[in-house]
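Standup notes
- DV: blocked on the single-chain target, sequence here:
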Amino acid sequence: MAGILQNLLQFNLIPCAQSFHALVVSYPCVLYDGTWGTVCDDGWDLSEAAVVCREIGCGDAIEVKSSAYFGEGSGQIWMDNVNCSGNESALSKCEYHELELNDCNHSEDAGVICQSVMRLVEGFDDCSGRVEVLHNGKWGTVCDYKWDGSDGAVVCKEMGCGNIKVLTYGAYFGATSGQIWMGNVNCNGEEASLSTCAIQGWGTHNCFFAEHAGVICGLPVRLVNGNSFCSGRVEVLHDGQWGTVSDDGWNLTDAAVVCRELGCGDVITAKGGAYFGQGSGPVWMNSVDCVGKESSLIQCNIAHWQHNNLDHLHDAGVICSGLPEKKACKKM
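- DV (later): unblocked, structure below
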């Protein structure tokens, strides 16, 4: 049983738009031992659904679905009689019947409909814009008074958008005359959601019209020229410019950090020799040495940034296992 419990840490969920169920590839599904499978609807209720929505960064659970509402899955049914308190950080941490030991078929696949409680509006992309939060069924803005990097970091993390790059104030992303829900926001940066940060009180603030908090977020790592979001040439953002990573010393440990940072599951292969084509611009990183626990590739050990004596014939790449659609539920 100890081996099973260790492997449970490898569960992943994949969201699709704003409606979800445990169906392979297109919808949230459970990954165990390299195989995707579904969740049985026995005992499935809002507590379990809330954990799913929170784990995939899609806000609150507003409706539970059962009886293969989103269509029948295929393959394994990994979880049955799931019992969550509702506070777990992942579905795999809830109680459930042992893997494969269930009396279900795919006509009983579980599902959920989530609703995000935060959105970024009028930005350049899904990861920038005016911050708006949903409270009492109504969307409203966040007062920019004392808006700082810790607050912005929580927003970017909650939206699945990586690190905070720029804080914005006033009407940078346009003005709206609606409700101002949050004022004097005071996050420590470790919160999973902006709604759990300290505030004056819902609807209490020191702002006037067009004093809106906003963010521009961005992951400092991307995969380019692959056949999916989760494969390609590794590129890092440094000093405002994208550049590549040399394959000198590039291994599975380094590649695993990239896959995890991008929400792409486990590493399958670490590639070298410009497998995904030659990049352009600077070769930012060489002789990368990760221990494997870093949250971002840029936290791994390197000698220094930029290597002018290297060419792009040795650009590093990676193929990861995941097929994420992490931002699908963020589009409003």
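- Follow-up: The CA atoms of residues 250 and 257 lie 12 Å apart.
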